[in-house]
Structure formats: structure tokens, C-alpha cells
Write a structure and sequence with these properties.
The complex is a heterodimer of chains A (about 375) and B (about 375). Chain A has about 375 residues and is of the alpha+beta class. In chain A, about 30% of the residues lie in helices and about 30% in strands. In chain A, the strands form four sheets. Chain A has an eight-stranded antiparallel beta sheet, with helices on one face. A five-stranded parallel beta sheet of chain A has the order 2-1-3-4-8, with helices on one face. In chain A, helix 3 packs across helix 6 and helix 7 crosses helix 8. In chain B, the strands form four sheets. In chain B, strands 14-13-10-6-5-18-19-20 form an eight-stranded antiparallel beta sheet, covered by helices on one side. Chain B starts with a helix and ends with a strand. The chains are: A alpha+beta (about 375), B alpha+beta (about 375).
């Protein structure tokens, strides 16, 4: 077995899912992630639990988005529901063969496809299930990131802390660091983000900050909260491209008034952005605000899962809030947009500078 | 690019075998090697408005569970798996063989324990099928390892499989319906027949079929297909038969199997290769020495045996007889843990007479 797969499997089974004997564990995997699926399956067996592996054929999501009736497309998959209603743990090994698989599809259908997926995921979130989405290196991700497959695999390995003497311990250490940051952020009422094309105020006082350190996303490394729904004010520019439901938007600039996005601009994908914002009443309000804290991810990979974790960035999501944060916004949308602050950006907490050029000042973190 | 034959195959499955419309929920079960057919069938079913889910389990999952799992892990059936049997009314099983030796070195008791763990799922499946709540079809898909098992090149196997599926015909669905019509005439001819006598080299066998219904198989539940069969009454098989088409059983080949029947029970058995496998299977249980099915193969596009029963039993001009389990819906009374189809080629010198009248001569139906 490849040590990459075996180490990664250990992080998933011991750290992310914390699998216990007797549990029922669903392993979903894209075709390219078959070696990791096998390593996870093996470690789940060793933990005395019951693994089931379900692979997703390459091209399935694309075919469904093209062919299924609109009503069917927006529904949860009945097989996934049967599983999600019962399992104790579920990990999805993300391994796309083509990151642009939905680029040619009618935006409304692409959005419906994502809604259908989220409807099934919602069942997991409502139950006390350990769940995780874990990225596997594929040629498609490498190409999108402008890297060779080996280069991407190395990047991902570092982002997952597989290069550390004990990756599970390294994730616990990251968790402690994030907990210290949260103890500072908990006292903050208003955050102000300043940078190129950006001057945005977000109210977070009284809301709960959550540490994401490898339980639900791999790679991981962020702290997030649900900002006050009526208080976001100002302009924010997202230089990094972002995708939702397979559709990509670049150079987005949003203006907020009293918590709602009232004006948009984008260098590309603007029509889809506006369609997404008009999709329901909650789509124009932020549901999440977060600091990226993974220092091993440096350059954008054009994949939100990784880019939103880049140390020195903040990201915010239009649409649904995570109830655990105290955020109340509801929407079918949850679109993360990443703002890079490493070159001249500043963050102020209740008027006091706490971060410059993407680095927290020593007296804050 | 999708092979145009796959698109026709998907239409055949959705239209002819499963009659899929917008009211249906289709579950596709496939090994990873069968993904192209699973995708093509899913596209067709979605276009018809149906809901479609796929279960694609890698081949190693079962082997690893057997090798590394505890007895409790081997005997586990996930409740979600059992629940999934309730949520669909159309099932497609893609038959795309991978490594036939994947479970080599695994103790057969453990494999049997894993199979037993799935029994509740099978039982629910059978109940729902009997209640008319679901339709299923098993559909072959050509793979490199399937070709290797058939001892052919990969491309040659692909051509062979698609020809057997009648997908080279201008109208494959029409071609299967035409075969169904031919079967109706054959079934009409067989209905009322009291005794069939099979004669060929090393073979003179009399099978009592009196009062039994004959079933036509023309692509409803097997693809490829092409046979008519019945479940003969107990006790009515007499004489000797030499099965000249080899049969692969749990990775072992049995060839030139000879059986002698007395009052419906195998009383003497031998094989040129795999005699130990043959004798062990006959001792499985009481029903394993009795006949559960007698059938005539009618697929003229399958012209030679390839070592896979799904294909070989359909060869036009052959007959086969199954030892073991019969089908209650056709009046079958025999029960057994096995259902083993053994095949006799009638195309050189063989014949079947029905109550003394020629029915099959030199493999050709005399109708």
C-alpha cells in the first residue's frame, strides 16, 4: 500500500471520523480515489467497525445534470438517503476526473444538481453522524491548479500534514492553535476587512466561532462564524475565482447594505452569480465569515475546499449559515468566496488592527 | 465517446427489459468495470423521467472483508443495505466480471458466511419480486478480464457479446420481440408434451415434462438471453447424459460431465476434469442430485461456448439441465442450495424427440 494512502486513511479514520468498534461506516469515493478507499476500508475493519464502499462512476453527476427531469435533479438521491439515515460515519473521497464537468450545463440545472446533493447531505447534518469530505489528488485538480500531478500530490500531502512525524498529532496541535485564536475572536463585536477593492464591516459579536481542524474537511484549517444577518456593510472584492454547482465566477465585487448584497460586478460569470443571488430570499446575505489558517497552502488551486483554507485569507459565504454558530440565515445557497489579504490586507477588530498582510499580530493570536 | 451500441443497449434495458417510465426508481448495481454501461443505462432512464441510483462496489471490498475482518464483521449486513431493498422497483445488475480469482486463498466457510449474511436482502428481494413490486435484469458488459475468461482477445469478445445481445441488428428491441414470438410457437409446441428424449453421443435421456408450464426467456431478465425452460416433475428423469460443454464452478472447470439418472436421482457421476468438484457439489444436499430445470437454448448469435454459463446455456441448438433448485412459479418442487446448469450441444448428431416426434435435429428446431 502507498504510504500516502495509508497515512491519509489514518487521519480520516482516527482523527476525522474517530471510528469506534461496531459502527457502520460509509466510504464514498470517486473512481480515482479507489486506492485511498481501500486503505480506509482496511483501517475501518481494523477499528472493529463495518465499512461499506460505494464508488461514484466518473461522469455520473454530469450525466444526471444533462438527462434527469428537473424535479428529479433537485431531489436527494434515494440510495444516499437510505444510507445517510442510518450510518454512524460517512466519508466522501473527492476525486473528480474533470472539475469543469458542469460548465456546459444550463446554470439553473447545475444549481439544481447541487441542491439535490445538499438535500441528501442535510440528512447527515441533522443526525449525530461523523462526516467528512476528503480531497484526493487527481490529474483534474492538478491541471486546474496549474501543477503536475506529483506537484499537486505533494501540496495536498503538506496541506493534510502527512509530511509531519505524526499527522494525527499535528492536527490536534492545529486545533489548539485555532482554539487560542477563537478565545480572542469571541470578544470581538465588529470585524473590518480592508484591502485592494475591499472595505467591509461584518458584525460577529455574540455569535459562536467554530474551529475546523480536520473533522469535516480534509485538508482543513479555518475558524468560522455566522455573522449578524443585518449588519454587513461595504464593498468586498474576491480576486480568487470561485465555483458553485460547477459554475465559475472570477473577479467578483459585492456591495453590502444592512446585511444584504445590493450590487454585484464580476469579470466573468456575473450572470450566474446574479442568478444564484436571486435564487431565494437568503441568498444575498452572508451565512459565514471565516479566517483561513492552513499555512501549507500558499497559491490558489482554484478549488474552494483548499483555497478557503489558505493561511492569510478570509472567506465568506453567501447563503445558509451553520446553526451551530448562532447564524440564522437560510438559503439553498452556500457559496464561499475567498479574499486574499496577504498583499497589503488589514483586519481590524473593534477598530484595533489585528492582522496585516495575512498575519495575525503577535498580541492577538 | 460512447459506443453507439451502448446507447442501443441502454434502450433495450430500459424499454424491453424494465419498461421504465417516470414513476420508477431504478437501482443500478455494477462493478467498476461495468461503469460505462451503468452510465448509459442511467442516462436513458433519467430521460424517461425515472429516479436512478448507482451502487458501485469495488471487487476487493469483499475479499478484504473476508481476509481482514472478524467473524462478526464478515457476517454483518448493514441496515442501510437492507433498507435499500425497499426503495427501488427496478433493478439492473451489470455483469462485468473482474478477476475470477479475487477471493483465492479465502476459506470457503467464510465466503459462505458472508453470502448467508445477505440472505435477508435476498429474501426481501424475492418477496417483492413475487408480489410483482419489482422487475430486474442482469446485463452482461464486455471487459478485458471477461475476454480472458472466455479465452479471446478483448475486442473480439466485445464483438461477440454485442452480437449475442442482438445489438448489431438494426432494431435490437424488435429482434428480441421476434425471438419472443418464436418462443411462443415453441412453447405452444411443447405444451401438452409428456416426455422429451435427448439422444446424442453418450446420451440417451428421458425427461418427463407432463403438465408443466414452459417459460420463454427473451431478454426480460437476462441479457443476453434465449431459452425456453420448464421445471420437470420429481422422479421423471431416466437414463444417461454427457454434457460436452465445460462448466466453470467456483473457479474450477468441470468438463465431460456424465450423469446417470434413475427415477429422477443421479445414481452415477463422472467427469474428465473436475470430478472431485462434481461429486462434492452432488453431495451438497438431497436436492442437488435432482433436476430443477430443463431448457432449450435458442440464441443463434451465440455460436460457441465461452466458459460463461450466462452465454453458453443460450447457445442455439443446445439443451441444458440444472441440478438443484427449481422455480416454484413453474410448479418446481425441488429445493437445494445449488442451481447448476449443465449444457449439452446437439448440433452434431444430437436430437430431442417430443413424445416420439422430432423436435430438435442436429441442433435445429423442427417446428
Amino acid at each position: 500500500m502507498d504510504p500516502f494512502d495509508d497515512l491519509y486513511a489514518r487521519v480520516i479514520v482516527e482523527h476525522a471520523l474517530a471510528v469506534r468498534a461496531g459502527q457502520s461506516v460509509l466510504v464514498e469515493a470517486g473512481e480515482a480515489a479507489e486506492p485511498l478507499a481501500r486503505a480506509v476500508h482496511r483501517r475501518v475493519l481494523e477499528a472493529g467497525a463495518h465499512p461499506s464502499v460505494q464508488m461514484l462512476p466518473d461522469g455520473w453527476v454530469e450525466a444526471k445534470a444533462e438527462c434527469a427531469a428537473a424535479e428529479v435533479l433537485g431531489e436527494a438521491d434515494p440510495l444516499k438517503l437510505a444510507w445517510y439515515e442510518r450510518v454512524d460515519c460517512r466519508v466522501t473521497l473527492l476525486a473528480l476526473a474533470n472539475v469543469e464537468q458542469l460548465a456546459h450545463v444550463d446554470p439553473a440545472r447545475a444549481a439544481a444538481s447541487e441542491t439535490g446533493r445538499l438535500r441528501a447531505v442535510h440528512v447527515l447534518l441533522e443526525r449525530d453522524v461523523a462526516w467528512c469530505g476528503a480531497q484526493y489528488p487527481t490529474v483534474a485538480y492538478a491541471q486546474a491548479a496549474g501543477l503536475s500531478l506529483d506537484g499537486y500530490r505533494e501540496l495536498l500531502g503538506r496541506a493534510l500534514k502527512l509530511d509531519q512525524p505524526d499527522p494525527v498529532v499535528a492536527w490536534r496541535t492545529q486545533g489548539e492553535l485555532q482554539d487560542r485564536l477563537i478565545s480572542r475572536l469571541e470578544k470581538v463585536d465588529e470585524l473590518r476587512i480592508v484591502g485592494e477593492g475591499t472595505d467591509l464591516r461584518v458584525r460577529v459579536g455574540g455569535r459562536r466561532w467554530i474551529s475546523a481542524c480536520g473533522r469535516h474537511n480534509l485538508p482543513d484549517g479555518e475558524v468560522f462564524t455566522g455573522p449578524h444577518e443585518d449588519a454587513t456593510e461595504g464593498i468586498v472584492t474576491f480576486a480568487m475565482p470561485s465555483a458553485w454547482g460547477g459554475q465559475r465566477v472570477e473577479g467578483a465585487r459585492l456591495r453590502f447594505e444592512a446585511g444584504r448584497c445590493v450590487e454585484t460586478e464580476a469579470t466573468s460569470g456575473g450572470a450566474f452569480l446574479n442568478a444564484a443571488l436571486d435564487s431565494d430570499a437568503g441568498a444575498r446575505t452572508l451565512g459565514e465569515f471565516a479566517f483561513g489558517l492552513n499555512e501549507a497552502i500558499l497559491a490558489p488551486t482554484f478549488d474552494t475546499l483548499l483555497d478557503e483554507k489558505i493561511g492569510g485569507t478570509v472567506h465568506m459565504a453567501l447563503g445558509s449559515a451553520y446553526a451551530v454558530t448562532g447564524g440564522t440565515n437560510q438559503s439553498a445557497l452556500h457559496w464561499d468566496l475567498v479574499c486574499d489579504l496577504r498583499d497589503g490586507g488589514e483586519v481590524y477588530a473593534d477598530g484595533k488592527l489585528i492582522q496585516r498582510n495575512g498575519r495575525f499580530l503577535d498580541d492577538f493570536a | 465517446m460512447t459506443d453507439p451500441r451502448l446507447v442501443r443497449y441502454a434502450q433495450l434495458i430500459c424499454e424491453h427489459s424494465l419498461h421504465i417510465d417516470a414513476s420508477h426508481r431504478l437501482h443500478i448495481s455494477t462493478p467498476p468495470d461495468g461503469a460505462p454501461l451503468a452510465l448509459a443505462a442511467a442516462r436513458e432512464a433519467w430521460r424517461r423521467g425515472a429516479r436512478v441510483s448507482v451502487g458501485m462496489a469495488p471487487e476487493w471490498a469483499r475479499g478484504d472483508r473476508l481476509r481482514f475482518g472478524s467473524d462478526a464483521q464478515v457476517a454483518y449486513l448493514d441496515p442501510a443495505e437492507l433498507e435499500s431493498a425497499e426503495r427501488f422497483d427496478r433493478l439492473l445488475f451489470v455483469w462485468a466480471p473482474g478477476n475470477t480469482a479475487e477471493r483465492a486463498g479465502v476459506a470457503s466457510e467464510r465466503d459462505a458466511a458472508l453470502a448467508r449474511a445477505r440472505a435477508p436482502w435476498m429474501a426481501r428481494h424475492d418477496e417483492r419480486e413475487a408480489a410483482g413490486e419489482l422487475l430486474w435484469v442482469g446485463a452482461a458488459y464486455p471487459t478485458a478480464l471477461g475476454a480472458q475468461a472466455a479465452r479471446m482477445g478483448t475486442h473480439a469478445w466485445e464483438q461477440f457479446v454485442y452480437a449475442a445481445l442482438l445489438l448489431d441488428e438494426a432494431d435490437p428491441i424488435g429482434a428480441w420481440r421476434t425471438l419472443g414470438e418464436r418462443h411462443k410457437r415453441l412453447v405452444a409446441r411443447l405444451t401438452g408434451v409428456r416426455e422429451l428424449r435427448v439422444t446424442a453421443t453418450g446420451t440417451d435421456l428421458r425427461v418427463n415434462v407432463e403438465g408443466r408450464a414452459w417459460e420463454s426467456c427473451a431478454g426480460e431478465a437476462n441479457l443476453p438471453d434465449g431459452e425456453v425452460f420448464c421445471c420437470p416433475p420429481q422422479g421423471g428423469v431416466e437414463g444417461e447424459i454427457l454434457f460436452d460443454v465445460p462448466s466453470l464452478q467456483s473457479g474450477r472447470t468441470c468438463s465431460d460431465v456424465r450423469l446417470r439418472f434413475d427415477a429422477g436421482v443421479v445414481v452415477d457421476a463422472s467427469a474428465a476434469i473436475g470430478e472431485d468438484v462434481l461429486l462434492a457439489r452432488l453431495d451438497t444436499d438431497d436436492g442437488a442430485r435432482r433436476v430443477g430445470e430443463f431448457a432449450i437454448g435458442t440464441n443463434d448469435m451465440i455460436t460457441r461456448a465461452v466458459g460463461a454459463t450466462l452465454f453458453d446455456e443460450k447457445i442455439g441448438g443446445t439443451c441444458h439441465l440444472a441440478l438443484g433448485r427449481s422455480f416454484p412459479f413453474l410448479g418446481g418442487e425441488n429445493t437445494s442450495a445449488i442451481h447448476w446448469d449443465l449444457i449439452r450441444d446437439l448440433r452434431s448428431g444430437g436430437r430431442i424427440d417430443a413424445d416420439g416426434e422430432p423436435l430438435v435435429v442436429e441442433g435445429k428446431l423442427v417446428a
